[in-house]
Design a protein that fits this description.
By secondary structure, this protein is an alpha+beta fold. It contains 7 helices and 9 strands; from the N terminus they run βαααββααβββαβαββ. The strands form 2 sheets. It has a 7-stranded mixed sheet, with helices on both faces.
Amino acid sequence: MLTYTAATSDTDLKGILDLQRANLPEVLTPEDLQSQGFVTVRHTYEDLKKLNDLEPHLVAKADGQVIGYLLAMTPQSRAEIPVLVPMFELFDTISYGGKAVSDFPYLVVGQVCVDRRYRGQGVLDACYAAYRARMKTRYAFAITEIAAANTRSRRAHERIGFREIHRYTAPDGVEWCIVVWDWSLPIALN
């Protein structure tokens, strides 16, 4: 049985980190990178906990084990984790609906991952449905960055209802897509 809930324990956070480590580019084959997607950022336990203390992450569990997650970051996260400052500064400059992203109450999806054994079974869609249900009364939308090269993630987010609002190339040459899932719009899950 699968459950979708807020991350509430050290075990949940450690489960997120274990799943994250198994999906970093350096441990995947080139074929896996293309077909399965990947996560980009390696969090420390301390940083993950700081973020979770501001707004709990969402975890999917099977038999008590974390098999998927959606990280949550708020604008307050900007002050907690210095590596996030450039992303939040970008949100000050790009617009959505005629206003700066930072003028809205928004939630950043810090990272998404589903265990390989559970992909293609609706886990990501269910995670996002639970995330939206829990967060939509406090935030206008969810926003995230996806590496343009991560086509599996881009397609999955588009299916859920995210729409690209900005694209840029980082100083390291990586191209990023900024996507928004506006919670005032009808659910777009297919």
